[in-house]
Amino acid sequence: MRHTVRSRRVLTAALIAGMGACTPTVKVEAPDKPIEINLNIRIEQEVRVKVERDLEKAIADDPALFGLPSDSGAKGGKKP
User: 25-36: per-residue pLDDT in tens?
Assistant: First the structure.
């Protein structure tokens, strides 16, 4: 029985030593090609709203400038 306990200890020590030698490694390397980040951002809607507001204000301020009859009773100088 003494021989079996000793051989288990030796086997356990060998396994622990072997596990230490097989530690996984992580390599971090720069890529060969440049990293491309494609962001499809649409700002068009915000710009369009701002331009439309400015245009409505300009038409309301001076409709004759845009070839429209000055309609003092209409809201914002718009046609019905």
Answer: 888 888 889 888
CA atoms within 13 A on the CB side of 34: 3
Q: Is the pLDDT of residue 48 over 80?
A: no
Return d(Cα 55, Cα 13) in angstroms, integer: 83
- Of 15, 71, 24, give the one whose Cα is nearest residue 79: 71
Q: Which residues contact 45 (CB under 8 A, 6 or more apart)?
A: none
Q: How many C-beta atoms surround the C-beta of residue 59 within 10 A?
A: 15
Whether this model's pTM surpasses 0.90? no
Token pair listed for 52: 């439309």
Single-letter amino acid, residue 37: I
